[in-house]
Amino acid sequence: MPLFGAxxxxxxxxxxxxxxxxxxxxxxxxxxxxxxxxxxxxxLTDAEAERFKATLAELGITNPIAHDSxxxxxxxxxxxxxxxxxxxxxxxxxxxxxxxxPYVVAHPGAFTTSTEAEGIRRIAxxxxxVHKQTKGIGSQVLLETTAGQGSNLGWRFEHLxxxxxxxxxxxRLGVCFDTCxxxxxxYAMETKKEYxxxxxxxxxTVGYKMVKAFHLNDSLKPLGSRVDRHAHIGEGEMGLxxxxxxxxxxxxxxxxxxxxxxxxxxxxxxxxxxxxxxxxRGLIEK
Length: 286
Known about the structure:
Elements: E1 4-7, H1 14-24, E2 28-31, H2 46-59, E3 62-67, H3 79-99, E4 103-106, E5 109-110, H4 116-133, E6 140-144, E7 152-153, H5 157-166, E8 173-178, H6 179-184, H7 192-205, E9 211-216, E10 218-219, E11 230-231, H8 241-247, E12 257-259, H9 272-281
Parallel strand pairs: 1-2, 1-12, 2-3, 3-4, 4-6, 6-8, 8-9, 9-12
Antiparallel strand pairs: 5-7, 10-11
Enzyme class: hydrolase
EC number: 3.1.21.2
GO biological process, one term: base-excision repair
């Protein structure tokens, strides 16, 4: 049975995200370790970290994962922003490590006014610098597949393999596969044949064993739109079949999967995370 979780808010304390995950019936949880739209971060205390770990143990929630700040751009040709992004990612890894979180999911970056090739080189160099400054830290970066809006890199599997190949410590990196992003980027997954072709492409470039986490999101926008808009499972342009194929793929049965679908309650007053998790569990073949 796959491990299912969701992204949860840390408002009121890190442990609150764990409690919310438990209430929704999750096995794992994703969170931000700081405000994702600010560079600065309030100092993370030992007491906060200990309470977070204790709540995970108490409620049986495993595989906590963090997502980095949306401000970070390791692909930027602007030296000031690039250095600021490196410093910020170092802090993200330090905070995750203190919380006992093994992975920090990061969008690779956008090349803005430079070129795709230059952006890939820039991201790899940035990761080399991050790794140099975080020697001895257990937490690792997971490069996320992106939808490819604007000059964002990571929407082709080749972008990710190019970045990984150019880093000095590729064993300190992994990949987070976002279903909505991969679909919006143009990789079809509706039929079994299409799904297998997409995973074959992933394996040929990155290697499927590099995938350490999944983001499970349907897409509001059509295949190949390169627009990142998440929808509830089975209610977007993807439909249920891609999720059925993924959830019954034995290669990924031990890889944790996290919802990033819209929050709120359904017309019946049910928490949307609960509804989406039930839909996903219903797709698993006995």
